[in-house]
Amino acid sequence: MVGMSTAGLKDRLQSDLTASIRSRDEVRSATIRMVLTAVKSEEVSGTTARQLSDAEVITVLGREAKKRREAATAFGDAGRVEMAAREVAELAVIEGYLPRQLSEAEIEAIVIAAVAGVQASGGPSGMAAMGPVMKVVQPQVQGLADGGRVAALVRAALTA
Question: Which CATH architecture describes the domain 8-95?
Fold first, then answer.
């Protein structure tokens, strides 16, 4: 995925949609359609219509993946197994287009370095450092890790 042209990821989604329709893959084609709709809405939101970069498309994909994760959990908790299974299947399709997610250990290493950097520069310590540490960590993990997981690890590092 890295090194694609500006519209590369969107074009790939478009061609994969055509292929999944031809192969009659219902879940895949429906999921890609939903993702392309979300991308299109993002393109026309704001004051002027524009073409999204791959990074922006990845952000939209991340948002859609988070929705599927949350819906699968909600359906599972409500005993709607078949709906939860569909959400998990859609999530698997979306994750195929996302960059590899960082492991817990990789995120921890970034968080520990950020905490050390903020405290070394005379910044606040303890939970007061949450904001400054997140400002350092967020650009490094953007699109590569769930924000909730990152925040939990930062919180754990600051209270340790």
Answer: Orthogonal Bundle (1.10)
